[in-house]
Design a protein that fits this description.
heterotrimer; A mainly alpha (about 180); B mainly alpha (about 375); C mainly alpha (about 100); A: mainly alpha; 8 helices; about 75% helix; C: about 100 residues; elongated
């Protein structure tokens, strides 16, 4: 049996995902997304990846989703009128069930992957060298082994910045 | 006695956790109430008025000297305000989006409460920080992350009100908060750089940062970072001169125009909670936390813990007064000025300061 | 007592991924579609961290760091595109983007 905290967080995350996918109101979708992201951040905490969990909340829930909400409010996206599209929702639900059944068959706790699960958390706690939880360990790998990707990530952010400024500028000849 | 106190602080058992939660909520409500009193009294003082001096209760008022002192000082006013918020009629306007309208004040308050639990207030005799819920080694980042969730309260509150002025306030507020978060994050990086010297673990832990200021406070070592961070916490708490989301002159009441009674009270408490968070972060990162210069409180044992608590409390009160002082001194900015200040002044300043610190550390260290 | 295994975490990641995929398939509001895409990314992040944790290496966790960075950049550009699209067509529905359709 998994840890009850894990079960609770997993249920919360999946419920939030359903809210995101099934709601017609974009603001409700955004709220579901925020809840799902916070749930995944909590999962990171359960996996001892504290730094990543904090980063997830800081970047995703704290900045990216504010941007989403801001755009939804700014464009004043209204939920579409008319009846709820039950046919499409049913098709979506069926697709989800099919996909998750496949995932379950692959990963069920008695399945093939569970047997090769590697060390469990208590075993790892005895050897914290390999999977360090501290923010410092991230710094060390980022600036040694992953130096080039780090530089590329910086360049990518700069490119995105320039691109967004170019895109967001109102075209001069509009109207 | 001592064992009980330590259990109260550390034990993961449910009753103890519940007790900690109650202590937190009680403390936050009290601090928020008395911050309001401070605000009213200080603004009255600045404007040459008297401020609240009428509220009193039976029995207390009959005590000869103390009674009139409590009445004239307005010390019972927060209780009266709180009671009023609680017992007023709480109508829900017909045009609002009901679930989000009800949810927004809660979303505004919850992150503030969570972060307040993580603030270390003093050092215990064994050197560990005294906090209701001490953070992991990423303490400061966690506080930034969680407190940044408070923006959803403003955004949802304004949006769910379904009326023009609150909506404008919400849009302004969310844009302002994400803009200043950037400058705020960058401005404190030099502090982490100074703290995380080689050989120091837990460089992101507030207790480590406080310990690193033993010889000299960070405000002396990093004056520019302190200035940028100070301006940013004013913007992040929506206080004057940055109170764009609720600027009364052009937006009636801003994002909480449609709110009343208890829900408005929750928004109010959240704002003061964020003020306390901002002040505490500034005190812990730049003003030496619970230390005083030339005084070794760490060597006094349990007395040192109490002394640290008192020092922190005094600094916090002084800082809250500073918030009020600024409010009644500097006029409100225009919205475009706020955005320009954030992006064109504070952000470049923070980056320049960071690069400068890099260079100094590379040459000197 | 048996604790949470790798398979549990992977299962959760897979379910979240499937939910996101379903959303991308059925939703027509571009903003929601985009959020579902982000959800799929988040699910893969969860799987990466879980693998990293149970194999006792740092690499997966560092990769997640980069995924978060790239996703942030991607969201900024994507939202700017959606806003530009809204300016041009006045709608954010993917079913309304049919100006290239042959009819």
């Amino acid at each position: 049996m998994p840890d009850p905290l894990f079960v609770f967080i997993a249920a919360l995350t999946l419920g939030a995902c359903c809210l995101l996918v099934a709601s017609r109101n974009p603001v409700t979708s955004a709220m579901g997304m925020i809840l799902a992201l916070v749930g995944i951040a909590a999962e990171f905490f359960l996996l001892d990846a504290y730094f990543l969990g904090v980063l997830q909340v800081l970047v995703y829930a704290g900045a990216v989703m504010v941007l989403f909400l801001f755009i939804i409010m700014l464009l004043d996206v209204q939920p579409p009128g008319g009846a709820y599209p039950w046919k499409r929702a049913l098709a979506g639900g069926a697709a989800f069930l099919l996909l998750s059944a496949a995932a379950f068959a692959l990963l069920a706790p008695e399945g093939s992957l569970a047997k090769a699960a590697g060390p469990t958390p208590p075993e790892l706690a005895a050897n914290p060298e390999s999977y360090a939880t501290a923010a410092k360990a991230f710094g060390r790998s980022l600036y040694t082994k992953y130096m080039l990707p780090l530089q590329m990530a910086g360049l990518l952010l700069l490119l995105a910045l320039v691109g967004v400024v170019t895109l967001a500028k109102a075209p001069k000849s509009a109207d | 006695m001592e064992a009980l106190l330590l259990d109260l602080l550390r034990s993961p058992e449910l009753p103890y956790v519940a007790a900690r939660g109650l202590v937190l909520i009680g403390a936050v409500m009290t601090i928020a109430g008395y911050s309001v009193l401070l605000e009213r009294k200080a603004s009255a003082w600045i404007q040459g008025r008297v401020g609240p001096n009428r509220t009193t209760t039976p029995f207390l008022a009959w005590i000869p000297l103390l009674g009139s002192f409590l009445r004239l000082g307005g010390f019972i006013q927060p209780a009266a305000d709180g009671g009023k918020f609680l017992f007023k009629e709480d109508p829900i306007p017909a045009h609002v989006n009901k679930p989000y309208y009800v949810l927004a004040p809660v979303i505004a308050l919850a992150p503030a409460l969570a972060v307040l639990a993580m603030i270390p207030l003093s050092a215990l005799p064994d050197g560990t920080p005294l906090a209701l819920c001490p953070g992991a080694d990423v303490g400061v980042l966690l506080m930034f992350a969680v407190s940044s969730l408070g923006v959803y309260g403003i955004a949802l509150g304004g949006w769910a009100s379904n009326s023009k002025f609150p909506f404008l306030g919400a849009v302004r507020g969310s844009a302002q908060l994400i803009s200043y978060e950037l400058a705020m994050g960058l401005s404190v990086l030099p502090v982490f750089l100074l703290t995380s010297a080689p050989g120091v673990d837990d460089g992101l832990n507030l207790a480590t940062i406080v310990a690193g200021q033993e010889g000299m406070w960070n405000i002396v070592r990093q004056p520019l970072a302190a200035l940028v961070f100070l301006v940013c916490i004013f913007a992040e708490t929506n206080r004057h001169p940055f109170d764009m989301p609720e600027s009364e002159t052009d937006l009636v009441g801003g994002f909480h125009t449609e709110y009343g009674a208890f829900k408005f009270g929750l928004f109010f408490v959240a704002e003061y909670g964020h003020m306390v968070i901002g002040s505490s972060l500034f005190i812990l990162m730049f003003l030496g936390g619970w230390q005083l210069p030339f005084v070794e409180t760490a060597a006094w044992g349990a007395l040192g813990t109490v002394a640290g608590l008192a020092i922190f409390g005094a600094k916090l009160a002084a800082f809250l007064f500073f918030f009020v002082w600024v409010r009644w001194t500097i006029p409100r900015f225009r919205y475009d000025q706020v955005m320009r200040l954030g992006w064109n002044v504070l952000l470049p300043l923070a980056v320049a300061n960071l690069v400068l610190t890099f260079l100094v550390l590379a040459v000197a260290g | 007592m048996e604790s949470t295994t790798l398979a549990h975490h992977l299962l959760l990641a897979a379910l979240v991924f499937c939910a996101g995929l379903t959303g991308v398939l059925v939703r027509r509001n571009l903003l929601v579609t985009y959020m579902c895409l982000e959800l799929m990314l988040a699910a893969t992040m969860l799987a990466l961290v879980a693998f990293s944790r149970f194999n006792g290496t740092m690499d997966g966790a560092v990769l997640v760091f980069f995924v978060i960075t790239v996703a942030a950049a991607e969201v900024a550009v994507g939202l700017a595109l959606i806003v530009a699209l809204f300016r041009r067509t006045g709608a954010v529905g993917s079913d309304r983007l049919d100006s290239l359709a042959d009819r």
